[in-house]
Amino acid sequence: MKAYKYLDIITGLFVAVLIVSNVASVKIVQLGFLAFDGGTLLFPLAYIFGDILTEVYGYARGRRVIWTGFLSLAVLSLVLSLVGRLPAAGDWPHQEAYNVILGQAPRIVLASLIAYFAGEFANSYTLARMKVFSHGRHLWLRAIVSTIIGQLLDTVVFVLIAFLGVLDGGLLFQVIWSNYLFKVGVEILFFPITFLVVRSLKKAENEDHYDVGTNFNPFRFSGR
Fold this sequence. Notes:
- The protein is mostly helical.
- The chain contains seven helices and two strands; from the N terminus they run αββαααααα.
- The two termini are 12 Å apart.
């Protein structure tokens, strides 16, 4: 198997973004006319990393990283839930605060796991297929189209599972469209940086993978 210089670094950053985003998602923030969960400030970077992984290293290697992130989020949820259920020390007065804030996290993570699975694989699949069809041209178009599709799935699924019954209908709808507009807008804004990183990585890794003959089954863990 070919050794890469930067794949492990990108994987680590990708997982860090996912974990931090999910913890920050327990708070709903208001910026101007936009209302969204706090994790939205960072989460678009996960899709940028996803684009970079698929564009440079291919769908199969991106799939392994996506599953690494998925399992990391599952561990986060289990640990926070376990810690919340353990009895607090007698002189520790913050159990209620823990339950109110981090007690939401398991539901947030469950929502994120399902939404992440659907959105990330839709994003990676779309980008990989469009790369083959376009013969590697128009990265800007492929990145934006894959983001529009992936983020739509991710946002709707995440918000409905995480906040249905917690937020009233009007705020729920506002959080959905605010999240979606913010995430897509961030990826478009950051595209020049994405382009430079992709170009640099292709040169440094001597890799520009085309997913011809790739098995796109998201549950396949090895090979192409």
